[in-house]
Amino acid sequence: MTNSLTPFFSPRGVAVIGASSHPHKLGYGVARNITQSGYPGKVHFVNPNGGHLFGHRMIASIADIPDPVDMAILVVPAPFAPDTMRQCGLRGIKATILVSGGFRETGDEGAALEEKTLRVAQEYGIRMIGPNCIGLLDTHFPLDTTFLQPPMPRPGEIAFISHSGAICAALIDWSKNQGFSFSRLISLGNQADVSETDILPLVAADEYTKVLTLYLENISDGARFIQEARQIVLQKPIIALKVGRSESGQRAAASHTGALAGTESAFDAAFEKAGVFRADTTEEIFDWARALAWSPLPQGRRVAILTNAGGPGVIAADALEDNALELSDLSAETLNALGELLPPAASVQNPVDMLASATAEDYAESLRLLLTDPNTDAALVLMPAPPMYPAENAVSAMIPIIQASQKPTLVVLMGSEQIAEASVRLQAAKIPDYRFPERAASALAALAKRTEFLREMDGFAAPVISTDLKEAQEILANAESGTWLDTELADRLMNAYGISTSPIKLAPDAESAAKLGEELGFPVVMKIASPDISHKSDVGGILLNVASAVEVTEGYEMLMARVQAQRPRARLEGVHIQRMIPQGQEVIVGAVRDPQFGALMMFGSGGVEVEGLKDVAFGLAPLTARDAEKMLSKTWAGKKLAGYRNISAVDRAAVVDALRCLSQLAHDFPEIAEIEINPLKVLEQGIVAVDVRVKMVKELS
Amino acid sequence: MTNSLTPFFSPRGVAVIGASSHPHKLGYGVARNITQSGYPGKVHFVNPNGGHLFGHRMIASIADIPDPVDMAILVVPAPFAPDTMRQCGLRGIKATILVSGGFRETGDEGAALEEKTLRVAQEYGIRMIGPNCIGLLDTHFPLDTTFLQPPMPRPGEIAFISHSGAICAALIDWSKNQGFSFSRLISLGNQADVSETDILPLVAADEYTKVLTLYLENISDGARFIQEARQIVLQKPIIALKVGRSESGQRAAASHTGALAGTESAFDAAFEKAGVFRADTTEEIFDWARALAWSPLPQGRRVAILTNAGGPGVIAADALEDNALELSDLSAETLNALGELLPPAASVQNPVDMLASATAEDYAESLRLLLTDPNTDAALVLMPAPPMYPAENAVSAMIPIIQASQKPTLVVLMGSEQIAEASVRLQAAKIPDYRFPERAASALAALAKRTEFLREMDGFAAPVISTDLKEAQEILANAESGTWLDTELADRLMNAYGISTSPIKLAPDAESAAKLGEELGFPVVMKIASPDISHKSDVGGILLNVASAVEVTEGYEMLMARVQAQRPRARLEGVHIQRMIPQGQEVIVGAVRDPQFGALMMFGSGGVEVEGLKDVAFGLAPLTARDAEKMLSKTWAGKKLAGYRNISAVDRAAVVDALRCLSQLAHDFPEIAEIEINPLKVLEQGIVAVDVRVKMVKELS
After folding, report:
1. CB contact under 8 A, B609 and A243
2. What is the pLDDT of residues B532-582, one digit of tens each?
3. Which residues of chain B neighbour A174 with C-beta distances below 8 Å?
């Protein structure tokens, strides 16, 4: 794969524009790092004042840079950026990193300067990372364009793409005693040109990168991000930390769906659709990434715990449960073998507690037995420092066993000084170690989730549902922006996308009532229509289960007679006719437009209490059957569809279809701001959208 | 405070029974540690083989130990324990730590030996810690009775009481590079005699201990634990990690309440009642404990964030929100002063971003401004290593500011090598530092929670509710164990404790119907009573809102006539009379007996879906008004009582009363296994227990 971004991670020659011999200037740090990083290409320093720096002669102007040079790092005051960019263009340099600050982040003036610089870059076909960034590094190539304190991190397997330069700097330092390192790392700054989505494929293509990790403050093009990420996760896992939740705030929304669907729900749904794992904390990212980079994947969620003390075993068992993992049910063969190996007071049942007297050989042999047990998918080894010998002895005995197995083993070394050497040995062998069982269990769960994700891939099919796009286009053609769609039109719109509704229609006389009955389908409900009567049942103004045109005609006359007798002064407009809806369950289904990700779908417990109960789940349109199934399974409303106690089972499949159809509708028509069906009545056979509301967007952006 | 446990942490003389000169024996480790710990009392080593050890002559027998000696550490093979204990008794030693294993943890034989040893100890009035433990240490006295690798941890402020010795050992090692240390630490082993509850007051009484932390696998006497802890937390916070969740399993239960109230709900409720903070992970314990030990308490939840980069600020703002903390709204004065201090591109709004150019003085002066702002209760300082100078410079500039303020400041040093010295300086100044904003925010929230807890103390009053204990005793006198109480008795039981019910009664004729109507109170509902009619409304068999005795008499005849006309063959037994219950909200209220903590109360959304919705909260009986209020506020069912959209507000106070009365009943009668009111109908005025079920325990243990 070669494209306009390729030079960023494999330039044949790099120029530092604004290289400086003053140690306090960024241009010094950049020059120092690129020199010391061991970068194998050609290095050029540009400074109009001339002189020498790190064994290189300073070049006076960009035009004078000799070949090869296909990337430039710009460390120049912001006002000089547009002209410097132009000179790069004239020299034929197509990849630039604009390190300097003083642009959009400082206000309107800076924003204008950024815009101007970008225009120049585009004019010359130059790709630009930044401005206001710390650049990038590749520990394998190697290449370091940053000004951070050397040395560059050692070669690693985890790539990191970041919207914050400070986080990059902090993580590089932090990683040094955390047992992992980076393959490629990139700080994107203001993203005037290159965004996280642009750079994703290039980072993923790196052979040394096993896992991609992202620090995101936003996503500029939601649909493209999902598409790119979706391709990558088939090969390599992506873990994202999305921050700025507290800034997202609430949507201005007219429906329950809108009120409940915060922008973070859209990010959750987007990551799920893209197959990206969303971490809650920075530490969690790397707890997971280390396991995903180094360990084989487990075939299931059954974990064997091996410990030399009871307490850690109990904590670990709790942690497995918290992470939806299971204690594996050891085979009789394993139990026997452990029984022969270990002292009588040891517990051979999972968690296997060898007791404090466990030798290094006990650790190794017990682990071997656990890993070969057919009922075990993964092992979790717990090691508070053994009282009578160094922890590293046990670790060294286990390493070949762990490396020989196709099942993952994570090791928890509990302590600090007494387990330091053991930790070093595990890391050298690329075996993830943790200080506490809780964090190791979370990493094991990430491995299991990855296995399940890869298995589910076959369910990732395009939706095949019947929709009448043309009919819907006609219905929406005259819809006024910013308003609610007329009820009848809303019903027709649903029907066009295969969602049956239950319109209420007014019959001014018996004949039209009978006709409406036939139109709507029997049986029907008949209700007296009068602005003066609010409680219709009090005056006998309702007829249920009316089964034929004849019955409707008779019913019409009967209702009129009854009501006139009881309320002679009431104005009677006729009778409302609605199809009789059988018993069933009621749910809510909705869609709301997200500016970044398109239509965000909601499903859950409906009624007036929907916002209080918050029993809802979200997904991004268009939904596959699997997406819709997942939404159902996340809510009580969805689980209940299969029946619960004296609540009868209803047509769950019809809900899946309706969700998919509605998602297709919301996807097809960006001019729809919100749709809400509350309730959607789910029957033994099929569904009925009882109350449908559709709101149009104010202005299509 | 002096009692039988006092010698454990301040013995005048200690004997090591089984001291050994073989470096691989535990008796060697114990002798070494007590010698090297700097213990100021008299040390005696007992070994029948004689010789010298660490400058002490070995004493041949316990009888020969000279004064003073008031504590003995026993490191002897299990079979010798009873006799050794007896010799200690004869010598007049009243405090022993039985370090050795080989007791209950190994099976029946060991359990018998443990029992025998305990009986000897009790015979001589000896208190015993262990067996199967690693003993205790006091870093201030100092005293170290363990056999762990020296050196003993440095003097600290956090006490740790543990059911697991291995966790003690691991944490002592781990603490060494975590910036905290222990004051007193104790491993309780099998707790044959001394339990966590016994030792709590002794540990709390230590002047150096600022925070107590607990690792618990169980609690032997729930009521006493709550009582002791409740006293202590008024002075010093307690943080507990309760493990063994995965082992707790489910209750065998007959009611919704029983099914939902897992044993972990009881622990949650117990800790809440005791004022003990429950941590989820080991790391969380000490994240909180460090802040609670070292920082002043904030007056509220308004936090100012100070950073030198945007990314960390965004993460921190998210973390505040996740922990229910708020970004403080800086005063105009502060904003102006920051504006004058910082460069124009800096963000003076909270989170205050000074930019990467921030000097050490900028950090100090900005922090001073934030801490003096009246709208700020606490500060969170974020520091990825400043690019141009060492992080410790900024830290040193801030330390006097932090120490001078009565508001807490937590510092996040992001990185590893570049912030190492800064971390050392903060810890020396007893200022908590963290690596990531998420964990610091969690600690800040613990501080805020502590403030709120201490403020709430005035609400901790004994319940004053009207109950008729004698009437209830009479009702329950003949209740058969293991069965459901007869419906009528259950209703009477509720009435005895001030909970109104709505009994349904059968009237075989019009006269008794009228009488029942007067007895129950008008208006009433009348329903035809017939084993042959299931849908009573279909045959006109229901009369609502019957308002007087005359109407009841007429109604009786009318119902009989109507139903006989429509179903001539149906057997009619008379009419069921029930007080008419007005419109209202429906909730569930229940109680289930927990073996450790007594009656566990439940409140929440009722109906048939209660187990699916899981909108329930728990509390321990007897409930104060505040306890009951808290349970309401945790659930949607409770929030809704105040009204929501078109749902009218109902009598929330009556629910609080009913919960308290029911909790008093469940508390007063241990012979009740489960009570469930589902639904409890909450009216505009008052409540009605519509369906009451009471189950008696099988055997009173």
Report:
1. no
2. 887 777 788 888 889 999 999 999 999 999 899 888 998 999 999 998 888
3. 414-416, 435
Dump pLDDT digits (tens) for A158-214: 999 999 999 999 999 999 888 899 999 999 999 999 999 999 999 999 999 999 999
Residue among B165, B243, B436 whose CB faces A283 most closely: B436
Q: Please check whether residue B79 lies inside any domain of the structure.
A: yes
Rounded to the nearest 10 degrees, the angle between the axes of helix B360-372 and helix B391-404 is 20
Question: Is the CB of A415 less than 8 angstroms away from the CB of B173?
Answer: yes
Structure token pair of residue A311:
């307490």
Q: Which candidate from B215, B322, B613 shows the least CB-CB separation from A636?
A: B613
Structural domain range at position A32? 6-209
Give domain status of residue A591, yes or no. no
- How do B504-507 and B574-579 pair as beta strands? antiparallel
CATH of residue B411's domain is 3.40.50.261
Q: B243 and A318 in contact by Cβ < 8 A?
A: yes
Are A131 and A10 found together in one domain? yes
Q: Which residues of A are less than 8 Å from B320 in CB distance?
A: 246
Q: Do A646 and B613 touch (CB under 8 A)?
A: no
Name the β-bridge partners of A397. none
CA closest to A166 among chain B residues: B309
Residue range A327-377, pLDDT digits in tens: 999 999 999 999 999 998 899 999 999 998 899 999 999 999 999 999 999
Burial of A565 (0-12, 13-18, 19+ CB in 10 A): exposed
B397 plus B525 within the same structural domain: no
Shortest CA distance to A223 belongs to which of A191, A194, A266?
A266
Residues B326 and B424 in one domain: yes
What residue in A sits closest to B108 (Cα-Cα)?
Answer: A345
Spell out which residues of chain A touch residue B105, defining contact as CB-CB under 8 Å: 310, 345
Same domain, B71 and B18: yes
Q: Using DSSP, how many helices (H) and how many strands (E) does chain A show?
A: 24, 30
Q: Let me know the angle formed at the C-alpha of B285 by B284 and B288, rounded to the nearest 5 degrees.
A: 80
How many domains is chain B built from? 3
Are both A404 and A525 inside the same structural domain? no
Distance CA A650, CA A147 (A): 63
Residues in B closer than 8 angstroms to A152, CB to CB, are none
CATH of the domain at B135: 3.40.50.720
Residue A411 to residue A379: CA distance in whole angstroms: 8
| B395-402 contacts at long range (C-beta below 8 A, 24 or more positions apart) | B395/B422, B395/B425, B395/B426, B396/B360, B396/B425, B397/B360, B397/B361, B397/B363, B397/B364, B398/B363, B398/B364, B398/B367, B399/B425, B399/B426, B399/B429, B399/B431, B401/B364, B401/B367, B401/B368, B401/B371, B402/B367, B402/B371, B402/B429, B402/B431
Which helix (DSSP H) or strand (DSSP E) does residue A382 occupy?
Answer: strand A378-384
Is residue A600 one of the residues assigned to a domain? no
pLDDT digit string (tens) for A273-323?
999 999 999 999 999 999 999 999 999 999 999 999 999 999 999 999 999
Which chain B residue shows the shortest CA-CA distance from A327?
Answer: B246
What residue ranges in B377-497 does DSSP mark as E strands? 378-384, 409-414, 433-434
**Residue A53 sits in the same domain as residue A116:** yes
Cβ atoms of B176 and B122 closer than 8 Å? no
Return the number of CB contacts < 8 Å for A and B.
210
Residues of A in contact with B647 (CB under 8 A): 608-609
Mean pLDDT for the stretch of residues B641-647: 89
Contact assignment for A165 to B282 by CB distance below 8 Å? no
Based on the domain organization, do B69 and B10 belong to the same domain?
yes
Could you tell me which chain A residue has the CA closest to the CA of B308? A166
Mean pLDDT of B290-297: 97
Residue B480 lies in a domain: no
Q: How far is B426 from chain A (nearest CA, A)?
A: 18
Give the distance from residue A26's alpha carbon to the nearest chain B alpha carbon, in angstroms: 10
